[in-house]
Amino acid sequence: MNVIYTDSLIIGGGLAGLRIAIASKQRGLDTIIVSLIPAKRSHSAAAQGGMQASLGASVKGEGDDEDVHFADTVKGSDWGCDQKVARMFVNTAPKAIRELSTWGVPWSRVKKGDRYVVVNAKRVKLTEKDEAHGLITARDFGGTKKWRTCFTADGTGHTMLYAMDNKAIELGIPVHERKEAIALIHNGENCHGAIVRDLITGDLTAYIAKATTIATGGYGRLYSVSTNAVICEGIGAAIALETGVAALGNMEAVQFHPTAIVPVGILTTEGCRGDGGLLRDVDGYRFMPDYEPEKKELASRDVVSRRMTEHIRKGKGVPSPYGDHLWLDITLLGKEHIDKNLREVKEICEYFLGIDPVKQYIPVRPTQHYSMGGVKTNPTGQSPYLKGLFSAGESACWDMHGFNRLGGNSVAETVVAGMIVGEYVADYCEQNQLEIKTSLIEQFYNRENQKIDQLIESSSNENVFQIKSEMQEIMMQNVGIFRNQKDLELAVSSLKSLLKRSRKIGLKNKTRSSNPELVEAIRVPKMIKLALTVAYGALQRTESRGAHSREDFPERNDRDWLKRTLAFWRNEEDEMPELQYEDLDILSMELAPASRGYGNATIIDNQDTEKRIKQIEEITKANPNADRFEIQELLNPIELPKKLQGKNERVGRGFK
Amino acid sequence: MRQEQQNGRKLKFHILRFNPQIEGDKPKMVTYELTEALGMTVFIALNQIREQHDPSLQFDFVCRAGICGSCAMVINGKPDLACRTLTSKFPKGEITLLPLPAFELIGDLSVNTGKVMRAVSERIEGWIHDKNMGEIDLTKMEVTMDPDLADNIYELERCVECGCCLAACGTKRMRDDFLGAVGFMKVARFLMDTRDKRTEEDMYEIIGDDDGIFGCMSLMGCEDFCPKDLPHQHQIAYLRRKMVTVK
Ligand SMILES: Cc1cc2nc3c(=O)[nH]c(=O)nc-3n(C[C@H](O)[C@H](O)[C@H](O)COP(=O)(O)OP(=O)(O)OC[C@H]3O[C@@H](n4cnc5c(N)ncnc54)[C@H](O)[C@@H]3O)c2cc1C
Ligand code: FES
Predict the structure, then answer these.
(1) ipTM of the modeled complex
(2) For the domain bounded by B2-110, which CATH number is listed?
(3) I need a labelling partner for A140 at 20 to 30 A (CA). Which of A444, A574, A636, B166 fits?
């Protein structure tokens, strides 16, 4: 039996995993990252558009601060987020971006003087202030009141990930590459590490740790067309689910991005619309202002994706061999801007579509993009159900995004959660001893080994590739942008029978070492379990909130559904997840439930909403001299690790 | 749109097959036939071959969008990113795929670029060197940077560590320890960055020998095959001039 001991084990080498590892290492802990691929190839590298942080340096960001960012995030979430966590996040985001700046990210900067931008299809002159010259600038993004999305051209994720990994290399943090965590080791109360398979040799190793962090990214590849990398299969979340103890939160909350290219689903960044790009239909008509007079193309993603789908359903889509699509028009931004700030987009258009976006429209369609759901954690990042298990980044349901995350808030979450949760992981490692029976290690090690033996020896004949593509089609067809009872019931029953079939996979290639078919055979049953948590969660949630949109229940129902879904998989033999619900406490919300200001949904009110609005008024009135920090403290007190406390400075405003 | 597509054409893929994990396995070329579809890339084709013909076929894709640098291989004699190579590019419909040379072979078309790239970063200490960094107060405004400088650093930082430059490098073939264009580009990037307090002398210690900048024979395979069109020739010439004047 191969065993490796460490203090802090991190599964995943994307932005979130790296940042947690850095925090552990800086606190003097022995730290190891395991990753399917080299860290710099993680999907974080694909983020093009940018990272939200309320620095307010550019003129269009003037007046921005944590409070405005907070309100945008809560509205974006359709009030489905944990407001404590959203607060922790917005207050720390400026620090995170400034830290990355010292670690080498070449953030695009404010240039003093005049510049021309495109806003609402018109050329507009902006004059940047002298005193902001050289500070980090920002662009517009959907669902935000201010221009808040900081960027490096359209390679933001790339530069962030490179700076982060370079820092990890400086600190000597080992990244064990081409390794896959396939099970967590636990005793029902404490998590002690993971069983990890080497993707080259096929050998298993037990990694034993005081704290184990899952930072494995999203589960977009449950769908047949996704903007996500092909490795975003949710295995990290699945192994947490398979403990039978840890819960996944809000798995039905799946985001569709308005502008992925047709047919392959590669993303063109929201920055295209943020910088002034428009959506057009088969007649070349700009249709978004008809649906969303105020935010137009820049309403939140769930809203724009739904409006596009509605418009296509009205017969206004552009027919193609791959189904109807719409056009993204960035021609009005001009060659110079596209060459510099949207170059990745340009390359993608050239290579995958053979078109020049300076002159031609881009064929786009809403496509699976982001997983709001994931391993349910406390605000400290720890699972409330399994001690020593942490999660951060897209794999987690830390729950700052609720039912819809804003563009630019996700890479921001990875680094902010990395900083915050990283400190709590280190605290946990310092405060706890490693106590584990070797028999427990053996039990898990042997179990996983036997499962692989069985797969290799099995004489069954279900084809794993076939099963996987059926699952992806089921999700695509029935658990998409618009959902209804009939489709969702079909999805659940089809997935259930697929799960049974997935227990009878037969391999053509019986090699135990590197073997792509075996890799799939290990993953696919896990993915189907996740798919079931998504589909079943969506079926049970009889309301529409954020990205979860039920045609048969179009209202946002705060009365019955201001709740977080928790999914458990109690026994390996089970065919369905167990769902539980956790109330969001309106009476401790800093921002009482209200309309988002876009999307035009009806709301069924909760009786506590009125009460909370009154309370907030009273508290504000009773403290006429309190500044915005004191008011926040009264309405929504939060805890942050000591080194992350402190107000954030802004140009022209100081620490106010 | 997609003008040159030859929908329904038969394609022949000739692929090097070899799994060093299996004792006694020998390298061989195997041919697979496929029907071309609209917009087909080598990524789509290889997955089809794996799913329909041979599930043991090994290759590496992550982003499948030309962003992450995982999928470089030699395609009809040229190193390139397979995920964004359209099959329609090849009028004859014959496509030969070999693993990237200059890297350890994992199996078939999969090579270990990650290990080499980490070693490159360690060797050139590819991170910001600043003794005062630990003391930076994150509540304060960031240090300003000239906007053009920030843009210029990004121009050099667009490398995705795909390995095409090393695979195409004449010097690397003869000199195993040669740093190569990926390393030079990183050195140039950090030298340009005012946040990194290292001097040209410090960089000389890293690249001032024949395994470094003076070993380059100026064959410029790196410039020709870089999928991100990075200015290798220019930067190598620049570094060589700088390093000559150091000592
Ligand atoms: C195309 C695209 C563009 C985007 N643009 C933006 C943007 O502009 N702004 C924004 O805020 N967000 C954006 N996002 C979202 C954002 O990029 C991601 O949510 C974020 O980067 C996720 O980071 P992460 O660290 O959580 O996970 P990832 O970066 O996905 O990393 C996951 C890591 O886990 C490892 N791993 C996975 N499973 C296992 C396993 N079983 N065992 C071992 N290791 C494992 C992988 O190897 C990898 O290292 C974009 C997303 C996409 C798809
Ligand atoms: S798979 Fe990422 S560059 Fe080809």
Answers:
(1) 0.96
(2) 3.10.20.30
(3) A636
